[in-house]
Every structure is written in C-alpha cells, then in structure tokens.
Amino acid sequence: MQQNGCDTAALQRFNPTGDEGPTRDAVTLKVRSAAEAHGRKFYIMYDVSGWTNFQAELKTDWDEQDGGDHGIVGLCQAERQASRCIWGFGFGDGNHPVTSAPCLDVISWFKAQGCYVIGGVPTYWRQGINDSVAGMLSVYHAFDMISPWMVGRHRHHRRSGLVLHQRQRARSG
After folding, report:
1. What are the angstrom distances between the C-alpha of 133 and each of 28, 53, 107, 119?
2. If you placed Cys at 36, which of 55, 70, 74, 79 could pair as Cys (CB 3.0 to 4.6 Å)?
3. Nearest CA to 85 among 106, 70, 67?
4. How many domains does the chain have?
5. Whole-model pTM above 0.70?
6. Residue-range definition of the domain harbouring residue 86
7. Residue 159's pLDDT is what?
C-alpha cells in the first residue's frame, strides 16, 4: 500500500461467528499489525449479507476486536472518530436486513461508541426502488457517510456521467 501511495484500506469482515471466524480474526490482526508497522490506516467494513443475528453480534465483535480502543495506531479516523462501515442494510434481495429498527439500533450504538459510521447502501437508496427496499431512508440518513453500490450499473466509464445525470434528475423530480 505504501509503495503505491494508498493510505487507507477497508477490511471487509463477514459474520465472524461462523466457520470462518478464527480465520477472519487472524486476518484482522495481520492487517492491524501491518498498518501500524508501515504507517497505513485501515477500518473494518462489516458485510451483513446473510447475517441474521447481526444486531447483537456486531456489537460483540467490536468489543472483542478492539474494545473501543481508539488509540490503535493503524485505525482510520474521520473527524477524530474511529471509522466503521456497515455494508448491506436495505438491499431488497432477501439476503440483507430490511427492517429499519435493528439497523438504526446498530448505527446508533456505533455512534455512541464514538465511531464515524459509513454505510454501503443500494444504488437506488433515495427512491427505495430496484435494489433498495422502501422505508429505509431513516437508516440511510443515520449514516455519517454513504457509499452506494455502483458495481454493474454502467458498462463503460463514459456512462458514469449518464448514471449521475439520471440520479440527479430522479432526486429533483
């Protein structure tokens, strides 16, 4: 990362209570050690795909992984807060949480721990259509920052302007 001018990486973390839990824990420790040794930053991006008990287990994982230790040298911070990303709230594919109350609880809990919370959200999060379920705007607005899923939304980089124009038109219309 350092050789290529990359300052920060998101470490995607799926349900750590499954069979892969010990492997994911080991990878997290390696990323933390490497970030500290090489002056790089990282943050955890929780992916809640298929994670039915995420509401309680995300909180437990936070406590077990760093116990709220915001002094970790390699931990990415935004606005002097530890960064965390939660990817997957509101996707309407049957594999992601679509009820706002538990999602809002998790976001509020991380904020209460002093975190800057990023949300990986559906492309059509504003309208609640296509890849997003309706009724999740309060969840999306609760994040400090969002990162809409854009993979596969256009076939060529020249179409990205068209996608932006369509989103802006939908927002104003």
Report:
1. 32, 20, 18, 15
2. 74
3. 106
4. 1
5. yes
6. 2-172
7. 65
If we measure between CA atoms, which residue out of 47, 51, 134 comes closest to residue 90? 134
Q: What is the amino acid identity at position 40?
A: R
Rounded to whole angstroms, the Cα distance separating 60 from 54 reads: 10
46: closest CA among 72, 10, 75, 99? 10
Q: Which residues contact 121 (CB under 8 A, 6 or more apart)?
A: 89, 90, 132, 140, 143, 146, 147, 148, 149
**165 or 127, greater pLDDT:** 127
> Is 146:140 a contact under the CB 8 Å cutoff?
yes
Give the position of tokens 């209570």.
17
